[in-house]
C-alpha cells in the first residue's frame, strides 16, 4: 500500500456525523480518481502526491484532517483496465476491500466519471462494480463527475442514463468536480468544491446512520474482518506458523464446493500481509 502523510486543513463544514470519514474512490481507468484524491488532500503541487497522469495499479490510502473531521481516502485500481483481465481487476478491488475492512468499512463510495464522456464503457464498469459490491452498494454511492470546468450535467441529464438512475436520489447524490490541475480553479473556489462535496457525503452518512447502517458492509467485507480476527488471535497465541496456510486451506475447500469465488484467496493474502506488518510494527 502506498500511504501519503497525514495533512491538516482548516476547511469548515456542517457538524460532521462521524469523526473519521472513510471515502473509497472507484471508477474506470483514466477518469481522474487520483486527481480527485490529491484535491481532497489539499495537494497543490502534483509532484507531492500521486501522479494524476498515471494509472492506479494498487490501492493507495491517505489521510487528511478537515476541521474536526478526519478523511481517510482510498484510491482503487481502475475498472476495465486495458492491461488487466476482469478477474485481475476484481482481485485488485478485493485487496482494496481488505484494506478498508481493517478499520471498518467505507462510509461512502465516490463513483468517479468524466462529465464529458458517458458511454457503454461506463455502463459496463458500473455493472462490474455492482457485481463486486452487491445491491447495497447503491445506498453508499455518490456519483462524482470530473472535468467540471468543461461541463456540469444537470440532474435531469444524469437520470437519462439508466445505469446511473439507481444512484440518484436527489441533488445531493451527485457532484461535479474541477480537476486539481485545472488552472481556472484556485484558492477559495477549489476549497468550496471540496467543502460542498464533504457536506454531501456527511448528509448521506447521516441518512444511513438514521437507518442504523452508517458504513457499507457486505459478505466480502465481513469475511475480510473475520479473517483479520482469526489471524490476530493466532498471532496473540504465538502461532504464526501455518496461520496463512490454515486459512487458505479452509478457503480452498469453500471455493471448490462452489461457496466462494477465487478472488477470496487474494483477499486472504492481502489481509494476512497487512495484519502481519502491523504486528511486526508493534513488536519493533
Describe this structure in words.
- It is a single chain.
- With 284 residues, the protein is α/β, with parallel strands linked by helices.
- The chain folds into 2 domains: 2-210, 3-Layer(aba) Sandwich (Rossmann fold), CATH 3.40.50; 219-283.
- Helices cover 44% and strands 15% of the residues.
- The chain contains 9 helices and 8 strands.
- It has helices at 33-41, 86-101, 120-133, 155-159, 162-165, 187-210, 219-236, 243-256, 263-283, and strands at 2-3, 7-9, 20-27, 60-66, 69-75, 108-114, 141-146, 174-176.
- A hairpin with a 2-residue loop joins β4 and β5.
- The protein is globular and about 55 Å long.
- Keywords: GTP-binding, Nucleotide-binding.
- Belongs to the TRAFAC class TrmE-Era-EngA-EngB-Septin-like GTPase superfamily. AIG1/Toc34/Toc159-like paraseptin GTPase family. IAN subfamily.
- Residues 18-225 form the AIG1-type G domain.
- InterPro entries: G_AIG1, GIMA/IAN/Toc, P-loop_NTPase.
Amino acid at each position: 500500500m502506498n500511504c501519503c502523510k497525514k495533512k491538516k486543513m482548516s476547511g469548515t463544514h456542517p457538524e460532521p456525523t462521524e469523526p473519521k470519514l472513510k471515502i473509497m474512490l472507484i471508477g474506470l481507468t483514466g477518469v481522474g480518481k487520483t486527481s480527485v484524491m490529491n484535491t481532497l488532500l489539499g495537494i497543490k503541487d502534483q509532484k507531492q502526491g500521486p501522479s494524476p497522469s498515471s494509472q492506479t495499479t494498487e490501492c493507495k490510502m491517505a489521510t487528511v484532517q478537515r476541521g474536526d473531521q478526519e478523511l481517510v481516502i482510498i484510491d482503487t485500481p481502475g475498472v476495465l483496465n486495458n492491461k488487466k483481465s476482469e478477474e485481475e481487476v476484481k482481485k485488485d478491488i478485493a485487496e482494496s476491500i481488505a484494506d478498508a475492512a481493517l478499520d471498518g468499512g467505507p462510509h461512502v463510495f465516490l463513483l468517479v466519471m468524466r462529465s464529458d464522456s458517458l458511454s457503454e464503457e461506463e455502463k459496463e464498469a458500473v455493472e462490474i462494480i455492482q457485481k463486486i459490491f452487491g445491491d447495497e452498494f447503491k445506498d453508499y454511492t455518490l456519483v462524482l463527475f470530473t472535468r467540471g470546468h468543461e461541463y456540469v450535467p444537470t440532474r435531469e441529464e444524469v437520470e437519462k442514463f439508466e445505469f446511473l438512475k439507481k444512484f440518484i436520489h436527489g441533488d445531493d447524490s451527485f457532484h461535479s468536480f474541477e480537476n486539481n490541475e485545472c488552472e481556472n480553479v484556485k484558492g477559495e473556489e477549489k476549497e468550496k468544491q471540496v467543502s460542498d462535496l464533504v457536506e454531501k457525503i456527511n448528509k448521506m452518512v447521516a441518512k444511513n446512520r438514521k437507518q442504523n447502517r452508517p458504513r457499507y458492509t457486505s459478505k466480502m467485507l465481513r469475511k475480510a474482518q473475520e479473517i483479520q480476527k482469526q489471524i490476530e488471535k493466532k498471532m496473540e497465541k504465538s502461532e504464526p506458523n501455518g496461520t496463512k496456510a490454515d486459512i487458505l486451506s479452509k478457503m480452498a475447500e469453500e471455493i471448490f464446493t462452489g461457496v466462494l469465488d477465487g478472488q477470496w484467496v487474494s483477499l486472504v493474502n492481502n489481509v494476512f500481509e497487512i495484519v502481519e506488518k502491523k504486528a511486526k510494527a508493534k513488536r519493533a
